[in-house]
Amino acid sequence: MWQNTDRTRNIGIIAHIDAGKTTTTERMLYYSGHTRRIGDVDEGSTVTDFLPAERARGITIQSAAITFNWPPQVDSAEDVKTAEAVASQSLPRSTLSHRINLIDTPGHADFTFEVRRSLRILDGAVCVLDGVAGVEAQTEQVWNQAADWKIPRIAYVNKLDRDGAAFGQTVREIGVRLGGWPALCQIPWFEGGRGNFCGVVDVVNLVGLKYASGGDGKSITTYNMTHLEAEEPALAQELRKARAALVEVLSEHDDAMVEAFLDAEEDHLAITPAQILSCIRQCLNAGDGKVIPVFAGASFRNIGVQPVLDAVNNMLPSPAERPQAEVSIGATTGYLDDLLAGRMIVHSSTKSKSSRQAVVPVVGIDKTLKGCALAFKVVNDSRKGMLVYIRVYSGTIERNALLYNTNLKQSERATNLLRMYANESVPVQSLEAGQIGVIAGSKYARTGDTLISCATNKAVPPSPLDQLQLRPIHVPPPVFFASIEPNSLKDEKDMHDKLNLLLREDPSLHVTQDEDTGQTLISGMGELHLEIARDRLVGDLKANATMGKIAIGYRETVTQTSRSNSKIFDSSARGDAKGKAGCTAAVEPYRSRTLMDEHSDNALQHEQDGNLVIVEAPTLDRKGRPLDDDCVSLPGHLTLNEVQSAFTNGALAALARGPGFSYPMRNVQVTLTLDPAKHIFGSDTSYASLTAAARLATIAAFREVSSMGGIAIMEPVMNVDIGADDASIGSIIQDISSSRGGQIVSLGDNEEAEANAQAFPREIDVSRIYAPKDPFEFGSSAGLDQQVNKQRSIKAKVPLKEMVGYLKHLRSMTGGRGTFTMSVDRFERMTGQREKALIAELRGGA
Predict the structure, then answer these.
(1) Which intervals hold domain Tr-type G (predicted)?
(2) Which of 84, 541, 615, 798 gets the highest tally of CB atoms within 10 A of its CB?
(3) pTM summary value
(4) Tens of pLDDT, residues 569-610
(5) 106 labelled as ligand-binding?
């Protein structure tokens, strides 16, 4: 097969849960010839939802990567001639067979992190919308996540065969809620204007595509403009309106379309499809989502999927057409192009008020760096072992190359490179930039790790390459946790080994050990997230273990200030190897960032998880030298940076476990002070002993505050976005504000959105959005029903404790039609009766 990146598409399928992502993916695989039968979500026979938990629940849990060719043809002697015709724009790009690397992402809010780590390796995305429900809460979330990476997106309105489907209404919602101008590339074809959904009309090529009723979607009858005017005059007239609207939208965003319109003597129909496709590509490549090409179909009825595949080839960019990836080295961020060209300057992480940040120019990287890739997915395959899916961003990753993991600081060889075609694999010798492949049998790589190959072929690359991070993302704090115990002592090691496999696949899971009880705790993003983790661990990986009840991950904080607590750590007292060091610590509430000017020149500040750690050495300068003759200097084997790093790690270890109920600490400022005369004991003082001393001193400060009653509990407060029919809004608001102690932030509907659009010219003006009439608009009763039961959204802030098990309650209030998404907004201190009730519950549980 070819190695041409111009004919490669790395795309994702994104949407709200149950919009039809997996069903659409299965049709794509079938029409490309990759599968011989169409998989069904309800039957559990889909290719991409292969986990038992996915098939049992009928939802996508892990993003699935799959490769196929569209159109389904191999290279031939005619391919060169066709390529020349495509280059001259006399034929569309979809005439040539392209390799499509497709990622089917989850839609459930609990797996938002899975979506984010999949999105960052994409060059384009297809957003699937439910034609009945319209733009739902999770649709907006994944759309905005894709916008963070400036990913070109097209919209596919699915399920137009269902009762109540409203293509026109959905198009208007796309403009209002997704913040872009819908550019209709297709309009739906209903028999007689009000009958069954039977096909789509291509606005770009001015043809109608009618699908055989009840068929597999391969039998399509094409109608040109003349035939449409003869058989469906109303539809032909609507097509003229749609073509004029498409040209108008594109003209507002690309001057080339204005010139083409003038050259065509202001005839909208005379503009060629090649000119329209070129303009759409230009608008999409900006990645700002201002122009949104819209397509129509019904994947379950096998209508409209092939034109979406053509649009992927024609409109979405190849890897070579996308901007360079973001990278970071330490605290410095930039772009891969700048790094390779030597234009990136690395700043040191040490800050002081009297000196500027140290800078290190990065040169010669292009000669040293042979290949750079991102591990975006890890799968445990029963036959092939651990499969690490990678996207190559620069250079080449070759078979048997020594790859350095910049996250784990470890090296291993890529002994087996594969290109995956669903469950089948093909060995390859190398993977070029822009390609997606698999490293089989990796021992260390995890989801999200950056892998680099260097010309030096050494285990550790030269600095600062060893700190290079590709497209780093922030992992949100887990808010649910559960205990997990082996069924017997002999199963404990096996359980921890399989937990490590699970963590490699999903880094948004966290596993910790309770020091007092010895319990293993697993934390995740939601109830379903932990339930799936349990199913994977016990069902798929066959670990002999039991998971306890899912609980909420609270935080502890301090409400008072401690005195300075000094502690000396002496390992010899415990019979261990020599190691002795001291530290002084004080803790206080942390409400806003402390100014560096309040501390000494060489003070180090480290902010993490809502806490601030300050390390001071008042008798030393920023290089670790004594400020006067009476001061003691550091021994030769220690530097001030090492001492500061050790103290910081010790404080962070203490912050991970509060003195009250062992929850992590939050909103705490820890000030650590080093006095070499009291805390350093010559060669006996090591990095590990300094870390231990800082931890002991910080714990002592916490205990002092705890003895004064200065420890409080903080609970996660969630941003909740609820979507429901208009008839259910009243009961939902009452439930949130009265029964659950939540705060309603906003109540959104289409009228409000339209009013906002009128008030702010920079927003989308709904009155200017073209959308064909929906079938229900021809009948008064159907129209009233649609108006009464239209979807509205509620945004609220609610304590997480009150949202446990909320989905079942919401469905009972809305007749099964309500949906919601939530994310952590902040941690808020509990007070009054709610705090007393929680403390009683925690102590009773203990």
Answers:
(1) 6-320
(2) 615
(3) 0.71
(4) 988 765 556 789 999 999 999 876 544 445 555 688 888 888
(5) yes
